[in-house]
Write a structure and sequence with these properties.
single chain, alpha/beta, TIM Barrel, eight-stranded parallel β-barrel, about 10% strand
């Protein structure tokens, strides 16, 4: 080897200013990637999205590898670039293969905590883009400078072995974490089933089973036609959305539901949308023809208020207007006049409208009286969350439970810990039966069924465990959020695209989840209104 080649084989001396910049971006990119990975793992655990957890594990590994490689990047070690290339290629490959799960997990985070997740996501994406470019430029420079690693065969073997065990560890973690998520969820469901199976007193067969439609009156059937350039395209989009909604309803009917719940958003009462009312009426005619009792629920996240927020007096006026509109128009058997009161402050109310249980109690008492004044046979209720951040809204129930015009309290259960939390809240604030009122589980499923990568037997086990639990806590009804899963091969993302309707036409019978629901509904109580 010549003297010139020997000099080129040595690491190039780092320039202090440039080295600090490279070190900063490398560490920041690594730490942000670790944070993104932990967030995906959290979403996977919390929402039964195991695939996202696996990609999250790959992101944590890639981020940690990047931070530990900072010195090698500064010194332009070619082996460092090779290692980073391998682990980041694996991460990008995982993201590409698991894109639906990752996109869903990211959407959940943006929906639940936009103020935190949006800036973090932009910072991570920008850091990855800039950091990748900077490291790529340095890597090209290092490659052009000639071989910089030891040339003997033993050193090359050790280097290859080091790469091999590291990348194998990353791949094992990527596969192991989803398995652990599924195993943990299954273990929790099995524990709940053991705890509540065969309760004393009422049997599981005393529970009335219903289902939540995917439809929100007021915007759902027209939103997919907003980008249409012609009337023909708009009508086609409306037709596809209506076909999906009716397929979802048909699968609910075929599964034997005794109740069907529909969201009542009322967006078209704030903005002009001539097509909305006619499409809603067509769907509600389909509901009426089934003969299944209708449950309406006031929605906390009207689409029209995603950008335009209301102060408290304006919101109260809007809520009164839409509840009166839907009550007069569709005459439901039950009307939940609020769903997660504290969530309205996140999705509909201005930041200046502070939460007040006293103000909410007055407003909802007025809404219950309004519903009863239009049709005294309609049951009224409220729906609450049991998470720690929503505990203040339980004071509304404590204040309203003696109200004669309020008939029922309902809760939502999507996570295993919410079974015990619900019992604790009922002990603390009072069970409805103590004041001659009813308790419902108004929404439930095994997490948010927003991805197709699921263990359907596990979801079915969740429904069976929920039925036993409902009997144990003396709940009158359980309403399952279908997420489109009652249609074979269906998912939440099919709704509005026309796919759900086509899937139902191809296989007009309930899926495994629908069949499990059907067994429970058939064994349940008959006429819930008796």
């Amino acid at each position: 080897m010549t003297a010139g080649a020997d000099e080129r084989s040595q690491p190039r001396p780092a320039q202090p200013g440039r080295s600090y910049v490279i070190a900063f971006w490398t560490v920041m990119t690594g730490l942000l990637t670790v944070g993104a990975g932990l967030a995906w793992i959290w979403v996977g655990i919390g929402y039964a999205n195991a695939t996202a957890s696996g990609t999250g594990a790959a992101a944590v590994a890639a981020g940690a590898w990047t931070v530990l490689a900072t010195r090698g990047v500064i010194l332009r070690r070619r082996r460092t670039y090779a290692g980073l290339g391998l682990v980041w290629t694996w991460l990008f490959l995982r993201i590409g293969l698991d894109l639906p799960a990752i996109a869903t997990g990211t959407a959940i985070m943006l929906f639940t905590a936009p103020a935190v997740c949006a800036p973090f996501g932009l910072a991570w994406a920008g850091s990855v883009a800039v950091g990748t470019l900077m490291v790529l430029v340095r890597a090209i420079g290092a490659m052009r400078s000639g071989p910089i690693e030891a040339a003997d065969r033993t050193a090359r073997g050790r280097l290859a072995l080091g790469f091999a065990w590291r990348i194998c560890l990353v791949m094992v973690l990527t596969a192991l974490v989803p398995w652990l998520v599924r195993w943990s969820r299954g273990t929790q469901i099995a524990r709940i089933a053991r705890e509540y199976s065969g309760p004393a007193g009422r049997g599981a067969g005393s529970v009335v089973w219903g289902a939540c439609s995917q439809l929100f009156l007021g915007y759902e059937l027209t939103q997919h036609g907003e980008s249409a350039r012609t009337d023909q395209e708009r009508r086609a989009a409306h037709g596809a959305a209506l076909a999906d909604a009716e397929a979802d309803l048909a699968s609910i009917v075929a599964a034997g539901a005794r109740l069907v719940r529909v969201g009542a958003s009322g967006d078209h009462l704030l903005v002009s949308n001539p097509d909305q009312e006619a499409l809603d009426d067509r769907y509600m005619d389909s509901v009426r023809r089934t003969g299944i009792p209708l449950v309406l629920v006031d929605t906390q996240h009207p689409r029209v208020l995603r950008e335009r927020k209301l102060d408290w007096p304006d919101f109260c006026a809007f809520q009164r207007r839409r509840i009166e509109y839907y009550q007069r128009r569709y005459r439901p058997r039950a009307y939940l006049v609020a769903c997660e009161p504290m969530s309205y402050h996140k999705f509909a109310l201005s930041r200046h409208a502070a939460f007040s249980e006293a103000a909410w109690t007055r407003q909802l008492a007025t809404m219950c009286r309004l519903v009863r004044s239009i049709d005294p046979t309609t049951r009224t209720g409220i729906c609450l969350l049991v998470s720690d951040d929503h505990e203040p809204e339980w004071q509304i129930w404590a204040r309203m439970k003696e109200l004669p015009e309020l008939d029922l309290l309902s809760v939502q259960i999507y996570q295993p810990d919410q079974f015990s939390r619900t019992r604790e809240r009922l002990r603390r604030h009072g069970h409805p039966r103590q004041v001659a009122k009813r308790l419902w589980i108004a929404e439930t499923y095994n997490g948010w069924a927003l991805t197709g990568d699921r263990l359907w037997e596990q979801d079915a086990a969740w429904l069976r465990a929920t039925g036993d639990y409902a009997a144990a806590i003396d709940a009158e009804a359980v309403l399952v959020w279908t997420f489109g899963t009652f249609v074979p091969g269906g998912s939440f993302w099919d709704v509005g695209s026309g796919r759900l309707g086509r899937r139902w036409q191809a296989a007009p019978h309930p899926s495994l989840i629908g069949r499990t629901f059907s067994e429970l509904a058939a064994a349940g109580a008959g006429d819930w209104s008796r």
